[in-house]
TrEMBL record:
The chain crosses the membrane at residues 54-79, 100-124, 144-162, 169-195, 534-557. Residues 8-19, 33-42 have a biased composition (Polar residues). It comes from Exophiala aquamarina CBS 119918. This is Uncharacterized protein. Keywords: Membrane, Transmembrane, Transmembrane helix.
Amino acid sequence: MSPYASEGFNNPTKETSTIDIAENSANDHESQRTSTSEEQQGPSVRVLGAVEKFWIFEFFGFILALGSLLAVIAFLRVYDGRESPEWKLPVGAGTYRKTFVLNINAIISIFTTTFTSGLLIPVAASMSQLKWVWFQQGRPLSHYQAFESAARGPLGSVFLLWTLRGRRLACVGAIIVVAALGVGFSIQSLVIYPLRPVATDHSSIGRTNVYYGTDDGLPYQMSADMLGATLRGIFQSSDPSEMKYNCPSGNCTWPEGFTTLGICNQCFNVTDSLQKSCSTADIEYVSPTGDGSTNSTASVPYCNYTLPNGLRLDGIDSGMSTGILNSGNWNNSVHFSDNNNTIGVLSSIQSKWTSSPSEWQDLDSGMIYATAPYEVKATECGLSYCVQKFNTSVLRGALTEQLIDTYVDSFIDAERVAAIVFHPPPSWTNASENDSANIYVAGAVQGFRQFFSKEFSGQKNSTVYSVTSSDSDFAVISADWEFSNFTDLFTSIAKSMTNSMRSSPYAELYAEPGMIWSAIGVSNQERPHVQVRWAWIALPSTLLGLSIILLLGTIWTTSKEKTILWKGNSLAAFAHPLAGDMRDKISTITGPREMQQEAERLQVQWLKTDRGYRLVPPKQD
């Protein structure tokens, strides 16, 4: 008799024989029923059998997961870089009609759920099938529960990884189940929504092709607007007036940039152009003595300094006095006399002490003339009409204008023509301008020259004791300036005058057809956009690849080991129960903990007996 023949319970012999006869009769009946049923199988049964045999449902799950992942990728590629979309979904009718709003995350969550569901179909089936392959060798009965738990969820998968120490194909499935917890997080992290500007309206800022800068009937008189702008540039150089603009959203750009008529400035250090001539002069002074005072005469050296335009600072002694001489005469200037487009020039000669008078010990001594060092410097700055190109933007209501290029035509004789015409190269002006929109300037050059000649001319002389003479407020202000101060001043004047020209009402009034007096830009609002971080696709892609490896590996192992294809069918436990003697060991157990402890001690093997496949004690080699 086979060692596995006695599978009955410990009952009296008569009852056991009855059970054996019944089992034999049942087996004979089952054989007859199986033979008959195989002959009478319909198409639906054969289809279901093929689905199980060829793992069609598991491959369907893999294809479902693959399709969901590809759908996410395709969906996000369409909207990557675009404004975040929303879809309105009306539900119901009449007063019960509601509108639900779907966004990208809602769509992604649907695909994520579908992906995870499809992914776990082949994984769960493979792990369940590998359980039967595992027990074809002698294993603890507790491993049966470990496989069952692993196929149901991540906690059981962790226990299976620990049980098998990660060295079996089933551990790949356990890793997938655990890692699948992060699929939702990973796919949702694919998308972020940075705020980016979106054009919602037009913006505008002043520019001009034409400027008539004189008052009516006064051809050489600056207009009141320009006079005010120029004075602001001179006396408020730290805060020149800002250009007015129209920006509805507070965030605007002018993508093409734009050109406008304006005022350009330059400053040069012309100290090297000074001509120096020195001599001595006898001066009388009162010298204190022990008995009173004595009139004395001293020979004092002095120098005269002259620029090529004739500006001359006379009688600068070796330390007793300092001074500044300014001229607004643009003729014969070092750098601007050849540019007939110049509207204003400042030539300045300065003499300055190089040490403080407070450091001199004897201001009454004649030696003062020999011990107080000084220096003489010359500066020349000019203003001229030009065409300017700007990059302009408004961010949170703050205007930023960057001057990126200038065009100056120096072959203009403002004294002999009524109007000045600039002809910048067509490639230099912005594309939005009409080709016929050349830059025009009416004859206000002489008015500017007269103003600056009067405003900039003047002199200030100082001694160690006091200011001896001054005939100009500007000379007093600029007496102690450095070169950078002159540069800042003329930059401020040029900017203030340019803004006045761009804002002038004459620009639109006298504009010819084709001229543009406002630069049109776009008004932007910050709105969320879709930005895809493709690195986050790595986790679901990896899990999908592991799942097909697991599925194909399970199919190959099942075929190699000739294992019955049970997969996760719960009825398999009834078809392949424990052998009778092992059932006796657990028949009195009433709790799961006690059962777990006993299962860890029981070694079982899934073998074919004369009664079919059973979980029996391991076969001894």
